[in-house]
Amino acid sequence: MGRTMGFFVVLAAVLACCALPALAAEARYGDSAVAAEGFSSPGNLTDGDRTAVASAQGPARVTVTREGGIAALYIEFDRVPQPWTLTDPAAGETASCGEDGFLHEYVDVSALGEGLTEEVVLDFPEGAAIGELYVFSEGELPDWVQVWEPPCDQADLLLISSHADDEQLFFAGVLPYYAVERGLNVQVAYLVQYFEGGYADRRRTHEQLDGLWTVGVRSYPVMPEFPDLYAESKDRETALNQALAAYEGAGYGYEDFVDYLTWCLRRFQPLVVVSHDLDGEYGHGTHVLCAAALGDALERAADPSYTVEGGEGLEPWQVEKTYLHLYPENRIVMDWDTPLESLGGRTPFQVTQEGFGCHESQHWTWFYRWIYGAAGSPIERAADIRTYSPCLYGLYDTQVGPDAAGGDFFENVETWAQRAQAEAERLAEEQRQAEERAQAERQAQLEAQAEADRQARERQAQQRRLLLGGAALLGAAIAAGAAARLIRRRRR
């Protein structure tokens, strides 16, 4: 497992040195000028083709100038980037970038200082590989620019998808419904990557991000280092064994996958997990491997005695509900065909069709007809797909009881936001009660002090009355004594 865990949030960016010499070039890019040095094929930075790459042969630099000011940059890397720096020479400000490892990185240049700078300098380490660089002025940001948020700390829903495009196919409807319509914290984790090994094709990672963005996901996905390898059989055990044999040939075992998914569960603390059919939908061995490893990971993630490499500081986690696609027990039917205002009047399924539209490299496959239909017979509803229906799920594991109503992964589950609201209300109620108790105590103290003061005044008044009464008696006694003495004198 030692080779695997360090790649969970971002993949290591290892780029072989190109035989071409490093070049310097300057190009006009709209109203901007982009000067690059230290890159092979520097013209590829602004040619509009992200599959044509500029590679850093050593420390490399890009200088961008734009009259009127630079508000933002958007970079599409060909490899997961290592940290790089952005400098505003005029303001003398430098920012660290690339630390999140986003393949598509948005940089808010306007945040560097007051006003918009007209020049920025980008310094990249050796091995950086860039497909495209975009420069934007103030108010010019198109909606296709992806401003990714870091992966969730606490996911309401974790979708575990074997490949880039499975999330748009067999899980059609899930992401736009729960990420957009319900506004939940939705995290996607994949089982393979496309940068190296197996069926490496870096177009697919760009398509992966484009598709997620299209359907409304905003938390950056995670990928391990497992390559994309193929195995297929209609027999579950055969498909699993073929997949394991393929991965063992690449240096990975079943426990590596279990540990990765265990890490995902502890890292994202999902309330609900959704993943593949135990039979791998059409029998894909990696889908079968994903579902099987998830079953073991659910137990290990909740086991305090189990440790996973790379998971230091992560607490054990018990998922409340887990749904598997096509699982035959505790089955529910999801409605992905109701138009929703949050989706512009489209259905979750229609939005997912747009998401799969981003996966152009896979449009030659039978998946295209599966989700779109054939000429003259288009598929417009998820419910119309009978084979491997994206509407059918089963409750594989639950800690909160069975579903009664069905049709919602979150039946019997409060979201993290609801829990936070309930906790805030509880704390507010405790504060209110504490303030009421404090007020009551202050009032009781005031009343007690007032009573003590009254009693003190009463004692003082009593003492004065006693003193006055004693003085009167004494005066009377003195007067009586004086009168008696006077009488005695007169008698004499």
What does this structure look like?
This protein has helices at about 165-170, 175-180, 205-215, 235-250, 255-270, 285-300, 350-355, 365-370, 415-490, and strands spanning about 25-30, 30-40, 55-70, 70-75, 85-90, 95, 105-110, 115-125, 130-135, 155-160, 185-190, 195-200, 225-230, 270-275, 320-325, 330-335, 375, 375-380, 390-400. It has two domains: about 10-135, Galactose-binding domain-like (Jelly Rolls); about 155-410, 3-Layer(aba) Sandwich (Rossmann fold). The radius of gyration is 37 Å and the shape is elongated. The chain is α+β, with helices and mostly antiparallel strands. The termini are far apart. It is built from nine helices and 19 strands. Strands 1, 2, 3, 4, 5, 6, 7, 8 and 9 form a nine-stranded antiparallel β-sheet that branches.
- Biggest sheet overview: 9 strands, antiparallel
Count of distinct strands = 19
In CATH's first tier, which class of the largest domain applies?
Alpha Beta
**Global structural class:** alpha+beta
The CATH topology annotation of the largest domain reads as Rossmann fold
Shape: elongated
Q: Mean pLDDT score, rounded?
A: 91
Radius of gyration: 37 Å
Name the descriptors.
single chain, 492 residues, alpha+beta, Jelly Rolls, Rossmann fold, 2 domains, nine-stranded antiparallel beta sheet, 19 strands
